[in-house]
Amino acid sequence: MEKLKIVNLADIEAFEETPLAERLEFFNTYDLIKHGVALNPEATAISFIQSGDTYTDPTQVTYREFLAQVTRTANLFHDLNIGPGDVISYLLPNLPQTHYVLWGAEAAGIVNPINPLLEPATIREICHASGTKILVALGELPGSGIWEKVSAIRHDLPGLEAIIRVMGPGDEKEGIYGYEEIIGQYRGD
């Protein structure tokens, strides 16, 4: 890729003469991620430290594994009838699964990250306004309160078709799927 140098108005005008479609090689993040993986698939994409006690032994995810998990997650969303105009909202702290959900949701539909520190009424308003079809949230974890917020609002969202619980069990009768329980069913390639 040619190094871009803009120092004056003439440079900007020259840059703008080239249509965007001719300047960009990738038009979605999924293809960009695939390209990055091809450059160095065994390099570390995510280094996750669960707690301060385990900082010397982080969980490592390679780019190859990262892409496979993103692909599995996108396939899960497709299986739940998500299409390009459908919204997947999530309430997650910074976890490896958060990245899989973020990029997998973007590949399958429209991703809507929601700050998990918001109050339930505000989360409900955001989900309703965005037309959330699937909500992904952290399961019961002492001190997080995320699952309790989801439990408080889920029946107030008429367009909600499924909930995916990260780090917690599913209950398909209730429309809840355990992420770790089902993600292995999906292809990562």
Q: Which architecture would the CATH scheme give at its second level?
A: 3-Layer(aba) Sandwich
- Helix amount: 40-55%
- At the fourth level of CATH, the homologous superfamily is ANL, N-terminal domain
CATH topology group: Rossmann fold
Count of individual beta strands:
7
Total of helices: 8
- Spell the H/E element sequence: HHHEEHEHEHEHEEH
Describe this entry's structure for a reader.
This protein is α/β, with parallel strands linked by helices and 189 residues long. The protein has one domain: Rossmann fold. Helix content is 40%, strand content 17%. The chain is built from eight helices and seven strands, in the order H-H-H-E-E-H-E-H-E-H-E-H-E-E-H. The protein has a five-stranded parallel beta sheet with strand order 4-3-5-6-7, with helices on both faces. The chain has a two-stranded antiparallel sheet with strand order 1-2. Helix 4 crosses helix 5 and helix 6 crosses helix 7. The radius of gyration is 19 Å and the shape is globular. The model has no long low-confidence stretch (mean pLDDT 94).
Task: Describe this protein with a few key phrases.
alpha/beta; Rossmann fold; five-stranded parallel beta sheet; two-stranded antiparallel ribbon; 7 strands
In brief, what are we looking at here?
Helix content is 40%, strand content 17%. The chain has 189 residues and is α/β, with parallel strands linked by helices.
Task: Tell me the layout of helices and strands.
Layout: H1 9-16, H2 20-23, H3 29-39, E1 44-48, E2 59-62, H4 63-79, E3 87-91, H5 96-108, E4 110-113, H6 120-130, E5 132-138, H7 146-153, E6 162-166, E7 176-178, H8 179-182
Parallel strand pairs: 3-4, 3-5, 5-6, 6-7
Antiparallel strand pairs: 1-2
Helix pairs in contact: 4-5, 6-7
